[in-house]
Amino acid sequence: QVQLVQSGAEVKKPGASVKVSCKASGYSFRNYGISWVRQAPGQGLEWMGWISAYNGNTNLAQKFQGRVTMTTETSTSTAYMELRSLRSDDTAVYFCGRVRTRGLDYWGQGTLVIVSS
Amino acid sequence: DIVMTQTPLSLSVTPGLPASISCKSSQSLLHSDGKTYLYWYLQKPGQSPQVLIYEVSNRFSGVPDRFSGSGSGTDFTLKISRVEAEDVGVYYCMQSIQLPTFGQGTRLEIK
């Protein structure tokens, strides 16, 4: 069965960086893209960007361009999302999701990132 | 960016009765490939979102047939024919004809 397992919670100081991983299993990793979505406490869902696991091409929401890097490691079927220059309003749960027909079909369990001095 | 507007933002439903959520997009979601890229997700309390409906009206594998999606262009609806207790959570529509955007979410609670 398809599973996406994300790395554990992180606490970071403002200005630092965080790198969240998303390990896929149960399907051919290179055949699907991975999207990242975040959810601030008590808020809705915000799409951050997408990466092709086939060739590494990315497409990022404008507000994250220059601050987010998405990568994949096909040898381990793992996707990564790095967010730099963290601010308090980056405190959120970060989800990865497999992309099929432009939508996310399977989601990771989420990774809580807390930004606090 | 395409703006997705959901109504209502919350609803309280008696088990066994129907529920309906509207989602309107600021631009048509009909792609030149003939597909309409509108999805519905449910986020149950404390869980990750799960897909219910893809491309307007297609139920994802394992989704009960009491969930149905309809609509075209800019107006879409998610219907639950008979609400059950397990349907509690926040429902989101999402478009992906352009870079994806989500609606604000509709919180469903049981009366």
Characterize the structure shown:
The complex is a heterodimer of chains A (117) and B (111). Chain A has 117 residues and is mainly beta. Chain A has strands at 3-6, 10-12, 18-25, 33-39, 46-52, 58-60, 68-73, 78-83, 92-100, 103-107, 111-115. In chain A, strands 2, 4, 5, 6, 9, 10 and 11 form a seven-stranded mixed beta sheet that branches. Chain A is globular and about 40 Å long. Chain B is mostly beta strands and 111 residues long. Chain B is built from no helices and eleven strands. Chain B has strands at residues 4-7, 10-13, 19-25, 38-43, 49-54, 58-59, 67-72, 75-80, 89-95, 101-102, 106-110. In chain B, strands 2, 4, 5, 6, 9, 10 and 11 form a seven-stranded mixed beta sheet that branches. A four-stranded antiparallel beta sheet of chain B has the order 1-3-8-7, with no helix packed on it. Chain B is globular and about 40 Å long. The mean pLDDT of chain B is 97.
Task: Give the secondary structure arrangement, pairings included.
The complex is a heterodimer of chains A (117) and B (111).
Chain A: E1 3-6, E2 10-12, E3 18-25, E4 33-39, E5 46-52, E6 58-60, E7 68-73, E8 78-83, E9 92-100, E10 103-107, E11 111-115
Parallel strand pairs in A: 2-11
Antiparallel strand pairs in A: 1-3, 3-8, 4-5, 4-9, 5-6, 7-8, 9-10, 9-11
Chain B: E1 4-7, E2 10-13, E3 19-25, E4 38-43, E5 49-54, E6 58-59, E7 67-72, E8 75-80, E9 89-95, E10 101-102, E11 106-110
